[in-house]
């Protein structure tokens, strides 16, 4: 069993692949072996989470997830715990493996409780796993509600019940811990998955993934980029930030500050507000330029940050010329609205010019011509659809940021938290990615590395210190 931490990358498998892995293992092993392993692993983790627990409520559902719970309950009772077992369903209708777990429970002298306990020290959520097919209803919904009311740690088996294992969508049990079995599923790490799953643990039940290819990766830490002694500012590339229309100069400044602190050799700031040139940015290292005078073919450009509608006039020049490009915020909205800009964007890939789009879910919805809920319902699919449509790398921001590129499995970022949900942190990310592009990282690696470090910086932010974008930018790359 492993604790899933952002110290390495992890392959993720969707439900279809997990079912194939399970079927191959079932065929090769004596019947009931996997459920025995699953139940034992769950019981062991329950003890580790709540070593002094006396009463443990195991809330079982009508399928094999419930069977894992029944098997765990038998172990916990054998180890001296008071196991209170409820079943939202008919024991006679359980699938074969779960029925066997039910028989073992009965043989151990245990029976079902008529209702959840009024109090317990730990809840085990064995209502639904990868078979969750529709929103929780009836007895399952009642059990989930009771679990929330107990106010004790909740250990979810495989998937927090109700959560869609592939997407992280769906109203689900909110667990403090989730023990993923056989495979790690992408839905645990994006959309509602992080909040539902809590700390994720993984047990492969001694079954290798075999020939199955992961549908996505949980990203690990990027490689360090040591700065050679015999290097100079030209070795690290030049960034230009174009944005900051009237009233929004701060966004462009944040991106430029992040690019500077993330290690770009030189950073140009090209505000779209003519008056902004008179502002003292407090960063004398920045070189203020009119955008039309920038040497675009030699620059990594971050375009859009606070760009307002003015950025649409810049894009016909920037899209074909920038050596590498990050499009954020208003630049994305302009692309979403103009077919000519979309064509210029797509044409960049034919010339192998690296491009990264950094939409939040609303911007992604505009680019895809759909709604924000539709994007959030399947963030991996939305990011992949965008990458395919615009032939570039896409960083779909939010809880469990997705990094996608055409023709390869997407990555889900494991770092960051809602402390980043404050104005301007997305501008910081755009500037940070541009700095890595300027250094020569390929677009996917640049996006993945900057997103990981940006989130990690937030995770390590001192608890009592407000996290604001300006301070985040000043520590980029640190
Ligand atoms: N086989 C093995 O040995 C192993 C299995 N493993 C474990 O099994 C889990 C998968 O088991 P599973 O396929 O039985 O699916 P599961 O999640 O229990 O639910 C299916 C049941 O729920 C029902 N149902 C669904 N949604 C519902 C709703 N909203 N409201 C009400 N009912 C609803 C659905 O009914 P139906 O849709 O058919 O009407 C069906 O009866 C997996 O996550 C892992 O924990 C692992 O230990 C590895 C070894
Ligand atoms: N709940 C969250 N968990 C992880 N990251 C988050 C969360 N909320 C926001 N972020 C991150 O904060 C940044 C916000 O970017 P964005 O929405 O563009 O805001 P802004 O335009 O104000 O800069 C993104 O990198 C996003 O992934
Ligand atoms: K569950």
TrEMBL record:
Q: Which residues bind K(+)?
A: 65, 125, 161
Location of the YjeF N-terminal domain: 18-213
Q: Which PROSITE patterns match?
A: YJEF_C_2 (PS01050), YJEF_C_3 (PS51383), YJEF_N (PS51385)
Mind listing the UniProt keywords for this protein, alphabetically? ATP-binding, Isomerase, Lyase, Metal-binding, Multifunctional enzyme, NAD, NADP, Nucleotide-binding, Potassium
Q: Does the keyword Transmembrane helix apply?
A: no
The record's listing under CDD domains reads: YXKO-related (cd01171)
List where the protein spans the membrane.
none
Reactions catalysed: (6S)-NADHX + ADP = AMP + phosphate + NADH + H(+); (6S)-NADPHX + ADP = AMP + phosphate + NADPH + H(+); (6R)-NADHX = (6S)-NADHX; (6R)-NADPHX = (6S)-NADPHX
Residues bound to (6S)-NADPHX: 64-68, 129-135, 158, 251, 304, 360, 427
Q: Does the keyword Metal-binding apply?
A: yes
Q: Which InterPro entries match?
A: Carbohydrate_kinase_pred_CS, CARKD, Nnr, Ribokinase-like, YjeF_N_dom, YjeF_N_dom_sf
Coiled coil stretches, renumbered: none
Biological processes per GO annotation: metabolite repair; nicotinamide nucleotide metabolic process
Domain of life of the organism in this record? Bacteria
Query: What GO molecular function terms would the record report?
Result: ADP-dependent NAD(P)H-hydrate dehydratase activity; ATP binding; metal ion binding; NAD(P)HX epimerase activity
Q: Where is the YjeF C-terminal domain?
A: 216-478
Residues annotated as signal peptide = none
- Which PANTHER family does the record match to this protein? ATP-DEPENDENT (S)-NAD(P)H-HYDRATE DEHYDRATASE (PTHR12592:SF0), ATP-DEPENDENT (S)-NAD(P)H-HYDRATE DEHYDRATASE FAMILY MEMBER (PTHR12592)
UniProt record similarity statement:
In the C-terminal section; belongs to the NnrD/CARKD family. Belongs to the NnrE/AIBP family.
Which proteins does it associate with, and in what oligomeric form? Homotetramer.
The record's NCBIfam families line, in alphabetical order, gives: yjeF_cterm, yjeF_nterm
Name under which the protein is recorded: Bifunctional NAD(P)H-hydrate repair enzyme
Taxonomic lineage per UniProt?
A: Bacteria, Pseudomonadati, Pseudomonadota, Betaproteobacteria, Burkholderiales
Gene name of the encoded protein: nnrE
């Amino acid at each position: 069993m492993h604790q899933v931490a952002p110290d390495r990358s992890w392959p993720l498998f969707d439900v279809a692949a997990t079912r194939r892995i399970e079927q191959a293992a079932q065929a090769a092993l004596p019947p009931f072996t996997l459920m025995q392993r699953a139940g034992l692993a769950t019981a062991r983790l329950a003890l580790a989470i709540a070593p002094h627990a006396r009463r443990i409520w195991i809330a079982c559902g009508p399928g094999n997830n419930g069977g894992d719970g029944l098997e765990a309950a038998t172990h916990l009772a054998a180890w001296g715990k008071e196991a209170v077992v409820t079943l939202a369903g008919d024991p006679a209708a359980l699938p074969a493996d779960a029925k066997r777990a039910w028989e073992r429970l009965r043989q151990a002298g245990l029976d079902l409780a008529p209702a959840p306990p009024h109090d317990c020290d730990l809840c085990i959520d064995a209502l639904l796993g990868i078979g969750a097919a529709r929103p929780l209803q009836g007895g399952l919904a009642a059990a989930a509600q009771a679990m929330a009311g107990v106010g004790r740690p909740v250990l979810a088996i495989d998937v927090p019940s109700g959560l869609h294992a592939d997407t992280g969508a769906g109203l689900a049990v909110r667990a403090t811990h989730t023990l993923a079995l056989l495979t790690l599923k992408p839905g645990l790490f994006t959309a509602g998955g992080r909040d539902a799953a809590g700390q994720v643990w993984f047990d492969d039940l001694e079954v290798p993934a075999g020939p199955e290819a992961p549908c996505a990766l949980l990203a690990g830490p990027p490689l360090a980029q040591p700065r050679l002694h015999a290097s100079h500012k030209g070795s690290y590339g030049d960034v230009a930030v174009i944005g900051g229309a009237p009233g929004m100069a701060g966004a462009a400044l944040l991106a430029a500050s992040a690019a500077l602190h993330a290690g770009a050799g030189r950073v140009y700031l090209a505000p779209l507000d003519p008056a902004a040139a008179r502002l003292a940015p407090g960063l004398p290292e920045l070189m203020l330029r009119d955008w039309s005078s920038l040497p675009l073919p030699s620059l990594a450009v971050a375009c859009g940050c606070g760009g307002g509608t003015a950025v649409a006039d810049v894009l016909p020049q920037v899209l074909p010329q920038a050596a590498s490009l990050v499009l954020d915020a208003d630049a994305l909205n302009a692309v979403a609205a103009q077919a000519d800009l979309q064509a210029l964007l797509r044409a960049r890939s034919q010339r192998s010019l690296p491009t990264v789009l950094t939409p939040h879910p609303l911007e992604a919805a505009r680019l895809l011509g759909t709604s924000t809920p539709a994007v959030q319902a399947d963030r991996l699919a939305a990011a992949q659809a965008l990458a395919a449509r615009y032939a570039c790398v896409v960083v779909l921001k939010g809880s469990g940021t997705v990094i996608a590129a055409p023709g390869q499995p997407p990555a889900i970022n494991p770092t960051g938290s809602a402390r980043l949900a404050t104005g301007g942190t997305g501008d910081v990310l755009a500037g940070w990615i541009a700095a890595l592009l300027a250094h020569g990282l390929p677009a996917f690696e640049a996006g993945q590395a900057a997103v990981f470090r940006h989130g990690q910086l937030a995770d390590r932010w001192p608890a009592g210190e407000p996290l604001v974008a300006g301070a985040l930018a000043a520590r980029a790359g640190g």
